[in-house]
Amino acid sequence: MLTPVLETVRESILIQISLLFAGTVAVVFAVGQLGSLLLNLSIKYLATPEVKGFYSKVIEPRRRLLGSVIALVLLDGIVWLFFKLFLQVPWYRSVELPVTLVLTLTLGWLGSRLFKEYFDRYLLDAAARSGRKANSEFLVLAKFFANFAIVVILALTFGQTHDFNVIGLLASLGVGGLAVAFSAQKVLEQLLGGVVIYIDRPFSVDDYIGLPDSTYGRVESIGLRSTKIRTSGKGTLAIVPNNALIQSTIENFTGAKKVMAILYLNFYRRIPQDEQALIRQVILESTQDIFGLDARNTDIVFEENLELQRTQAQTTFFILGSGDVSMNIRRQLLDIANQNITRQLKEYGIAFDIEEPTIYVDSPITI
Description:
Pfam families: MS_channel_2nd. The chain has three domains: 2-157, no CATH class; 187-252, SH3 type barrels (Roll), CATH 2.30.30.60; 257-362, Alpha-Beta Plaits. It is flat. The protein is α+β, with helices and mostly antiparallel strands. It contains ten helices and ten strands. A hairpin with a 5-residue loop joins β3 (226-231) and β4. α1 (2-46) packs antiparallel against α3, α5 crosses α10 (324-347) and α9 (273-287) packs antiparallel against α10 (324-347). The strands form two sheets. The chain has a five-stranded antiparallel beta sheet with strand order 4-3-2-1-5.
């Protein structure tokens, strides 16, 4: 009769602990959201204008996610304090490990989102305001490596705090990889070439490309070892090893994107010729440092409305790019340049408004 009684007591204790843990989770998440709200109020009323501006642009849009991170930090501390120090249960690790893993993933997501806000609000603006060409491809790489660094740091921290020798694991994999590399060098070159193509994306399926050996056609598939190109004219299928492609000069006809951006400036009065020249100079100087903007084709046309005694300026920009990410960044840089145009013209006392939104028209390069 003793064993069933002990089993009943054990089940009762486990149920009570489970209910207590569930209640603790609910309370902790409420406290986390309250903490983020208190942080918001403290910065709003006590911080300097610079800190307020940074918080409102970067952190406040992710305030709920920040509250979840605060709650998970508190929950991880409570689990460690309650289960390990007080109860000293043998299954402490089975409770603590998933909590810490969720905390690590949430912290990584928060770090990535905060960097995205900082990148969009500050780095792009700084790149546009600098006197140098704003290289959007470099900005794309900086964004990628920043997110990669966040993942690596969190993975190493999680591994070291849970007795996972991440560095030793990577080292052992590296030693074993050397032996495999020597025995299958050519195959690995082709596989690595495929990885490079997938990451760098010099072309995509259905793009028309040209190679130095006069091969020209449409990409039908991109494999890990080779790429298949349907040649124009003959219609045959050329199978090219990926390691040969990454070492060749590839001419991508489809990926040479061109987007025409049309911006309308509506002035409240008629603009004389001398002020038109000033406006044209301000627009050209504000956009000439944007990398990927074909400044030679920037066109500014003034139209007079004699009935309303007003002038409208139609400004046409041509944005060149090689991918969706770089094109989006260049559009953001152009939006920042538009803000600079507005600020400078208002300093000269020229009042106007900008028609929203800016019109973007795809203008693909003819093959």
